[in-house]
Amino acid sequence: MILVTGGAGFIGSNFVLNWLVQSDESIVNLDKLTYAGNLKNLASIQGDSRHQFVQGDIGDAHLIARILKQHQPRAIINFAAESHVDRSIHGPEDFIQTNILGTFRLLEVVRGYWGELDAAEKRDFRFLHVSTDEVYGSLAREEAAFTEQHRYQPNSPYSASKASSDHLVRAYHHTYGLPVLTTNCSNNYGPFQFPEKLIPLMIVNALEGKPLPVYGDGQQIRDWLYVIDHCNAICRVLEAGTVGEVYNIGGWNEKPNIEIIHKICGLLQETYPDSSFQHLITYVTDRPGHDRRYAIDASKIERELNWKPADTFDSGIRKTIQWYLQHRSWITDVQTGAYREWMEKNYAGERS
Predict the structure, then answer these.
(1) Residue 4 and residue 69 in contact, taking contact as beta carbons nearer than 8 Å
(2) What order do you get walking across the sheet with 2-5 strand by strand?
(3) Strand 246-249 and strand 281-284: pairing?
(4) CB under 8 Å to 35, separation ≥6 — which residues?
């Protein structure tokens, strides 16, 4: 069996569901269930004996040790993280606690567990750490995309905390021999994404007739990766990745934010031809230290592990919009009072 941390969040829950479609191997799923963790994401596998959920924190060393002793996983996939840049700007401490100290405590317990395995189990064990392209910093329009050799230059408390966790994972391999793998992915989108991130926020607000807030001039460029493609890439890295290596996972879909928003408006209008959504676009004050461009060069994973994304942005965004249209109750359930207060605080600087 495998242990997945953060498996009730956006990417983690998609990974768990996708894994159980493809494999009979069991999963223990550890998640703290913060605002972005939602057991309703996993409702379709309720009662499935291959999935066992444990509520808890990766920073709880005693809990992690108990889980490892009881279940003896052959691999750990670490999705658990605070992951929203805007929240890290307003409140960085949670990011330090989870992404740095939590990863450290997890690594420490895993190191002890791995050290007691027999020779064959030690050889086959893997710790796969899921990270982000934001650790590499920002690119100018003419610069080449991030490769695995790109210098780390994080620009937000979020990306700095993830960079720190990446360095810890690397150090535990080089110092202690822990068999680690690290993946750095570009912007994910798809089902179950909490509506604070760009794509679900635009879909949800458009459906509710609310403003579609655009930071600055909207020309910030990101590479977009459909979440199921990301999940399949992680499976491939776990299966065949070289221990100690880093693999960049990207969608080869660089697009400015404003283009994404116009695309969503156009696709929603196909479903609601009598409605217009473009007029909801509202420019707001840019956030501090906003990186201008991220771009992932995913050549290494394609060359060495024969993986590339199956979805184009057009196919992925259509599936994503359909999912949100078909799961309006999920949207309502996650839009708590705390969510509304956050939106009011974060997007208060409307310009037009």
Answers:
(1) no
(2) 51-55, 27-31, 2-5, 75-78, 126-132, 180-185, 246-249
(3) unpaired
(4) 194, 336, 338, 339
- Considering the entire predicted model, what is its pTM? 0.93
Q: Report the SS3 class of residue 64.
A: helix
Residue 84 has pLDDT above 80, yes or no: no
* Four-way CATH pick for 2-189+225-253+293-311: 3.40.50.300, 3.40.50.720, 3.30.1330.200, 3.40.190.10: 3.40.50.720
| Residue 352: predicted pLDDT | 32
- Which amino acids are annotated catalytic? 133-134, 158
**313-326 and 257-271 helices cross at what angle (nearest 10)?**
50
CA angle 76, 79, 82 (to 5 degrees): 145
Q: Tell me: the pLDDT tens digits for 135-179?
A: 999 999 999 999 999 999 999 999 999 999 999 999 999 999 999
Please report, for the chain, the start and end positions of each structural domain, with discontinuous segments joined by +.
2-189+225-253+293-311
* SS3 state at 338: helix
Are residues 211 and 350 in contact, defined by beta-carbon separation less than 8 angstroms?
Answer: yes
